[in-house]
Amino acid sequence: MKQLIFFIFICVNIFASTLHLATSTNPSRLNPILATDSSSSEIAGFLFNGLVKYDKDLNIVGDLAKEFYFEDNTTLIFKLRDDVTWHDGERFSAKDVLFTYESIISPNIATPYGANFRFVKDVEVLDDFTLKVTYKHPYFKSLETWMMGILPEHLLKDEQNLMSSKFNSAPIGTGAYKLERLEHSKDIILSAYDNYFEGRAKIDKISFHVIADPMTRFLMLKSGLLDVGSIEPMQYERQLDKVFFEKFDIFEDVSHSYTYLGFNLRDEKFKDARVREALSLAIDRDELVKILFFKHATVCNGPFLPSTKAFNEDVKSPKQNIQKAKQLIRDAGYDEKNRFRFEIATSNSSPLRPYAAQIIQHQLKQIGVEVSLRVMEWQAFLNTVVFPKKFETVLLGWGLSYTPDPYIFWHSDNDKKGGFNLVGYKNQKLDTMIEDSQYIIEQEKLATMWQEMFKMIVDDNPYLFLYIPNAITTVSKDIKNVKLSKSGIWHNYTEWEKSSD
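RESULT FIELD:
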């Protein structure tokens, strides 16, 4: 009998199919309410579910909730699925949702996602599979709020400190995959959860290889050691041969993200609007896009994404004007004897950002500004520069929702520990507009307000908005059923198939 079991074990492992992916950094916390870095968020997305999600056409549909509806403008009812189990076999219920909500709003938890729940008045468990959420007033993102991954109450209810809990590196979720192994700076292995409520994923395992060096990731992709990967425009245009394109399909679309240079507005020298405008006018964004991206990016005009109702088409990106930039920097009190100097801090987790920093450094020399560069490993960058806000400027990016919430990034309230207003931007008029907009559910009126905010933020130059890269994703032709949609390629990943490795 033991020999038979051993034989079956060997066969299962031999014939298991594995999807090989890469991540640039070790995940900091595999906990959906604490996952703020891209690696943690990506991996946690396979492990946890929210009550609702986007489908391939960006419609909001049920996930852990089988049904949802508004009783009135401020009362939202969720009917939960009764066939969901946690990865340890325990049954999912409404208690888990209430526990997650109470954890997010707890003063002991530092999470930027708490801002999404600020208008929730009460969450009430009506029975094991029914929840009533009452809002303080109508809220335009009331449904999107509940895309947050849900935590297991039975495992964490007695946890003294969730921020440092062992759960964050050994999570138990409801997702299509469960954590099998976590080896920092090596591999993170996920295995398909047999009892997943939407049916077991067809690929048995997902292996995330932690590879900090972007060139190493690219070489692994070229050699077929990765099944899915992102490539840079230079690689796409100059470094791939016919053999690669015979082995991989290419999916390209405008990314839902942008890169910016953010000023620390707590620093006296960046409080001068003339300085910020001078630096903006000295930068040639078109040149940045041309050098770094060829035709695979566009200049970023502001804080909300193109093709959304929040985008203001009348606001154009500033064109380089060296003479005006020089005049503004002189008017601010700087000259050859008293040069304006500052540091750009960024991370090498995005291979093009260090090069972007070098181009900006060169462009600003034309107006007599001296720029030093600090390029760091991602976790060190987050922990010593970004989170403690110890920087002069940061070259960074944001991934954005299809429905923007300006409160999270631009309201003064979020200039706090764990908040996403990293640069300390404060504009009382904008704060009031943001607060007023939260009550509006009429889409056209809301769009008009967002567009006004768009212009106001761009005019203030708290960031220099730089570029929106295209997302160029390569997928091995060995992976079947991959379909590009409005939401990208991952919407049906449980249906992907791969022959055994």
